[in-house]
Amino acid sequence: MFVRKFARLIVGALVMMLAMVGAQVAAANAAPEVPADDTVAARTLYYDASRAAEFVDVVHRAAEIWNNSVRNVQLQRAQPGRPVNIVVYADNGWPRAQPTSLGNGRIWMGRQAVNQGHDPTRIAAHELGHILGLPDNRTGRCSDLMSGSSAPASCKNAQPSPQERAQVERNFSRGAVAPAMAARYAEDRDYTALANTAHAA
Ligand SMILES: [Zn+2]
């Protein structure tokens, strides 16, 4: 009698152990947990530099600078079958950007500023900054990317300042309210961002 009862207990314990192991295996195979906010994948914007003529490499370099500067948004070269967010052109005018919404718009790499000695990589990074939601900020400081041509033409800095990086991170953080881009850039004349389509290629 005692032996049988003991055997039943053993069997019962084994069944329970197997059930627990089974539950652990099931948990291990379950889908990963939803990542915390700071590990959410960056928003990817696709840019087309194929129409930027002699500035193609400069545009790629400027995109790389932004990719190394911020986490919440990344710029990748346009790929077949993917929507394009940013198209970059080259012309003989003044450099300018035409943001249509946060992360979307057109850029013109204007030769006029380049011919006046302004650094092409700084111009490209500055115009991408507009697409990423940064306004002009005419501080005259070379350390500011968005100071544009208010800094001396000799300024070669194409790196966004810590404040500019932080603003872009905020613009592309989860739940951020997109700025009213068109209104913001209506009167921008400094490596300019345009609100109208007058210069659209
Ligand atoms: Zn500007």
What does this molecule look like?
It is an enzyme of class 3 (hydrolase). One of its GO terms (molecular function) is metalloendopeptidase activity. It holds the Pfam family Peptidase_M7. The chain is an alpha/beta fold and 201 residues long. The protein has one domain (41-193): Collagenase (Catalytic Domain), CATH 3.40.390.10. Helix content is 36%, strand content 17%. It has six helices and six strands. It has helices spanning 2-29, 56-69, 111-115, 120-131, 162-171, 181-184; strands spanning 43-51, 73-77, 86-91, 96-101, 104-110, 192-193. It has a six-stranded mixed sheet. Strand 4 and strand 5 (104-110) form a beta hairpin. Helix 2 (56-69) packs across helix 4 (120-131). The longest helix has 28 residues, at 2-29. The radius of gyration is 27 Å and the shape is elongated. The termini are far apart. Residues 31-36, 182-189 and 194-201 have low confidence and may be disordered. Bound molecules: zinc ion. The site of zinc ion has 9 residues, from helix 4 and strand 6.
